[in-house]
Amino acid sequence: MHTPPVDIDAVERAAGILRSGGLVAVPTETVYGLAADAENEAAVRALFAAKGRPTDHPVIVHINGVEEIHQWAHAPPSALTLAHALWPGPLTLVLKRTERAKDFVTGGQDTVALRAPSHPWMRALLREFAGALAAPSANSFGRVSTTTAQHVADDLGAKPRGKVDLILDGGACSLGIESTIVDLSGAAPTLLRPGSITRQQLQRILDEPVPDANEHAPRASGRLEKHYAPRTPLTLMTAAQLAERLARKSSERLAVLAPLHALQSCRANVVLAIAAEPVDEYARLLYAHMHRLDTAGADRIVIAAPPAGPQWDAIRDRLRRAESGASKT
Ligand code: TXA
Ligand code: MG
């Protein structure tokens, strides 16, 4: 897995499109984002329309680094500590906003979500653009996130027939799941979305507990019960349920994602995809596997439930939401 060298011409073209209010799909280390000028209301509205996302949902503002935090937010010491330790990288901070973060990026809330991504193409683009980029994940609302330029082309598509002015192909995303989101706008930090940066890491750096946000937490589409969902019905199964199901004769065509050892007694109508371990390898490939499972022509996707343990929190979170969001039969 490697990131191709930055194509400066493509990055300059992308910056030009963004300056004139266009939409560019951009590679980040987590998932592909759909970017627009964070200070251009019409462009951000077009972004929501392209995704089919409700306009009152807030969007992450991507910046170059910690030195730009103060333009957008009032940052308590804990925010600066985390940003210094983990930026650029897969961490999003929710903070009290300044004037600069308008209602159209915050969904009318008094907070703004900020992230400084580490992907070299995205960093080059932010430098070239010399501003901040609003960017939700580059997928239709509620659907599986995208981790390659091809995934974006298949879902949103490029103009004239698709919805995006340019898809910047910076290779496959190295982490594969969305950033960890921490809310530092209240009296104590809370975890809004688990990601490859774990709760334990955050707690170690902050030297205080980082509990899950309660149900009164601010709106966040990634927190909706139904999200990250394929079109095919999806069922998570324990190892025992999976073994029983795979040994049973059935006319239902299955697309299965499970470790190789769980697939010994598989019957012939089963489409296989092999889950990789360790966890970061699994995360990197999860959405690519989901896209493949979803286009395999199966009646049902079956995924082996991941192991227990906090390092699997983010994966379990995405799989659980994908299961409840997949079309039901
Ligand atoms: O890794 C990522 O975070 C990717 C890449 C492209 O950076 N972006 C991403 O964006 O996952 P999106 O929009 O799909 O998910 C961002 C989440 C949403 O659930 C959104 O509601 C939440 O962040 N969010 C944004 N601003 C917020 C705010 N002010 N308060 C609470 N949640 C917020
Ligand atoms: Mg998303």
Description:
This protein has helices at 8-19, 41-51, 69-72, 77-86, 103-106, 120-129, 149-155, 199-206, 239-247, 279-294, 313-325, and strands at residues 24-26, 33-37, 60-62, 73-74, 91-97, 111-115, 133-134, 166-167, 180-183, 190-193, 234-237, 254-258, 270-274, 300-304. It has 329 residues and is of the alpha/beta class. The chain is built from 11 helices and 14 strands. The chain folds into 2 domains: 8-206, Alpha-Beta Complex (DHBP synthase), CATH 3.90.870; 234-325, Threonylcarbamoyl-AMP synthase, C-terminal domain (Rossmann fold, 3-Layer(aba) Sandwich). Helix content is 32%, strand content 17%. Strands 1, 2, 3, 4, 5, 6, 7, 8, 9 and 10 form a 10-stranded mixed sheet that branches. It has a 4-stranded parallel sheet with strand order 11-14-12-13. Helix 1 (8-19) crosses helix 6. A hairpin with a 6-residue loop joins strand 9 and strand 10. Bound molecules: threonylcarbamoyladenylate and magnesium ion (MG). Residues 136-137, 145, 222 line the site of magnesium ion.
Report the major sheet.
Answer: 10 strands, mixed
Number of strands: 14
Residue share in helix = 25-40%
Q: How many angstroms separate the termini? A: 37 Å
SS content category: alpha/beta
Q: What is the fold-level CATH name, i.e. the topology of the largest domain?
A: DHBP synthase
Determine the CATH superfamily of the largest domain: DHBP synthase
Low-confidence stretches: none
User: Class of the largest domain, according to the CATH hierarchy?
Assistant: Alpha Beta
Ligand roster: threonylcarbamoyladenylate, magnesium ion
**Integer-rounded radius of gyration:** 20 Å
In the CATH hierarchy, what is the architecture of the largest domain at level 2?
Alpha-Beta Complex
What would the average pLDDT be, to the nearest integer?
92
